[in-house]
DNA sequence: CCAGTTATTTCTGCCGTAGAAAGAATTCAT
DNA sequence: ATGAATTCTTTCTACGGCAGAAATAACTGG
């Protein structure tokens, strides 16, 4: 794979690639300031990326400025294609993306069961489907496949524990690479993957420190500090899913009263209204009823908003971040509960403290698959060899 | 100050100094492994420190090992002296320390009021007193003075806001440097300083990620991630001082029910028992009564322990650390409330999660002054010039 | 058209590091 | 005891990455 004239990307080269991916188009002189490098170094470092066709020199914009106009560097977003897949207990959702994890096509398959071979086959089918619907339609020009999964993942290859799939120690990357003829596959915890996507391409783009809260089947939590996504051996255990938020709230399935899952997750909220109404309710319906002013729905979503606000206060005060990104397929709650959340946040936070920046990523389910693609992109850059 | 043959310490030199300070005595080969440098580099980098007399080559220990025994590097702890000062609203406590912030002498003065000039004079008096009682007794061979203060500090020189002293925008470092004849003075928030001391010389020694919780006049919180103490513009506002921990707890002075200050601070705990007994109680007395089984004291300290356990769970889950250091002059609470705290921690934390490591620094008030000295030491190393 | 300004490239030298090999100080086996 | 093996440290040399200076380029505004 690696001939004699290529070498592993240096630290500076990797930082350059990251900066252009996140902030491009961006001029060499601006890059020099950000990375603390001289203009000379920028010329040298960017050359191999231009030669490879990964970077392009954009046209100078910004008229009116004095002096020679900059020729900003940017990634050629269609230089590579990636596929991101989110696997839940019920289905497989896939997207084909460009180099900035922008989804171009999507596809989904329902899962019949949790048998490993069957799931691998379903994933492979989704991969082939989204690949066929994008680019040349050929799998061979896909640069990588990312897989995101709710659970604990080791070394980006092995699923240690996935409660929704009832899996333990499944070498998913190996299995899928075999199935896909050697295409590089990377597996990561879903919240970690989504956090990476927000950091590189989403609402946390370029921020050195921020947290991510996801609302969906459960409540997820991710943290970025010093430009790095925090991954611990406990990542994927959903430790932020059972924070006590409301001493008079309902119980979750594990018996925690008013915990984040009971108060904020889609099943938690649906169950609360369902019990009150004596029938099953869909999540969309809860939100619609709340918007229409239905007293029970309003009461439940307002309590959820207050719980979310309190959770945000805990995060701001303990993780010491000034920005939180809200995402997940259940983030529609924000539409009806933003007021209650902001009120509770303000009550639990010092008046002199700098305000917490909140960003909502409302792409819903696609965000998860996009996160998987971001992991594949990160991996592809880590594998990159540049000519000397 | 800087002659032509000296130059600013390189990144590797600074990392070497830090590693030896934290882990010395330590052999060059072990240092090479830790810092990712070749043995050759270690020889080169450590030479200027040996020439300056800051490092010594220890005697080889550890018999029984095969091969040439290592001559471990260590800092010469008495090569420099530092002074650390903690300023509260009521008094000034100072210690003289060696290069590892080990306190050798101490002194304290009560403050009559909060007038800036008077406080500066009191600090200077404490500095002179501890200097006179240690080393040569001369101020001139003190390498630096560190000051730690409860409040918001800018640029390690200006006190932006110190509620206990009722100060705003006091250029304390400048004032004190003038008073002390140009001796370098560094000012830092007390929790940040204490956190640095724990990281370099204390219970968090060498850990890349951990949190610090202090119990004292208030409740403090510090965070270390990726080997760096997290400092935000909000540091010193005491944001973790009003976390809701017990919905049925007492109110704090700002009206938060069952917040960390109400449940855990020395005044909070004394007030609870004081109200119940109808008389003033000292903190020591509360702890003694609780140890003796006094029902009210036990009830109050047990509730405090439960609140502390819950706070630790929030920290572990949201700051994503696996270690917490407990410190502060009120940490004696741990003696009587450890059981309740650990129980509450376990209840709020997933059974599969890795256990939270807890370290108690029971040096009490001296820890605060030691923190100030650690800041002075950190600064002295940052100022260091090495011969080329 | 020319001066002023800013961006980028080319050239050269320096600094920090690694690699190889030598040297040093010990243990272990015979 | 003596040599072999092992491990640590130093010396020497070469190289990669970076900065600084100067040259070149591309624009604005008078």
CATH topology of the largest domain in chain A: Nucleotidyltransferase, domain 5
Order of helices and strands of chain A: EHHHEEEEEHEEEEHEHEEEHHHHEHEHE
Which shape of chain A, going by the Cα principal axes?
globular
| Rg of chain A, Cα atoms, Å | 22 Å
Into which percent range does the helicity of residues of chain A fall? 40-55%
Let me know the average pLDDT of chain A.
92
* Structure annotation, total helices of chain A: 12
Largest interface: A-B, 37 and 37 residues
The CATH architecture of the largest domain in chain A comes to 2-Layer Sandwich
Largest sheet of chain A: 5 strands, mixed
InterPro entries (chains A, B): ATPase_NBD, ROK, WH-like_DNA-bd_sf, WH_DNA-bd_sf
Family (chains A, B): Belongs to the ROK (NagC/XylR) family.
Protein name (chains A, B): ROK family transcriptional regulator
Please describe what this structure looks like.
Chains A, B: This is ROK family transcriptional regulator. Chains A, B: Pfam families: ROK. Chains A, B: Belongs to the ROK (NagC/XylR) family. Chains A, B: InterPro entries: ATPase_NBD, ROK, WH-like_DNA-bd_sf, WH_DNA-bd_sf. 2 copies of one chain form a homodimer. With 388 residues, the first copy, chain A, is of the alpha/beta class. Chain A folds into 3 domains: 6-75, Orthogonal Bundle (Arc Repressor Mutant, subunit A); 81-195 and 368-387, Nucleotidyltransferase, domain 5; 205-360, ATPase, nucleotide binding domain (Nucleotidyltransferase, domain 5, 2-Layer Sandwich). In chain A, 40% of the residues lie in helices and 21% in strands. The first copy, chain A, contains 12 helices and 17 strands. The first copy, chain A, has helices spanning 11-23, 28-35, 39-52, 116-132, 172-179, 190-200, 260-264, 266-277, 283-292, 295-318, 333-347, 365-383, and strands at 6-8, 55-57, 73-75, 81-87, 91-97, 103-110, 142-149, 152-154, 158-162, 167-170, 185-189, 210-215, 219-225, 228-229, 323-327, 357-360, 385-387. In chain A, the strands form 5 sheets. In chain A, strands 6-5-4-7-11 form a 5-stranded mixed sheet. In chain A, strand 4 and strand 5 form a beta hairpin. In chain A, helix 4 (116-132) crosses helix 5 (172-179) and helix 9 packs across helix 10 (295-318). Chain A is globular, with a radius of gyration of 22 Å. The model of chain A has no long low-confidence stretch (mean pLDDT 92). Chain A binds chain B through residues 161, 211, 221, 223, 225-226, 228, 230, 232-234, 237-240, 242-244, 247-248, 256, 310, 313-320, 322, 348-350, 352-354, and chain B through 161, 211, 221, 223, 225-226, 228, 230, 232-234, 237-240, 242-244, 247-248, 256, 310, 313-320, 322, 348-350, 352-354.
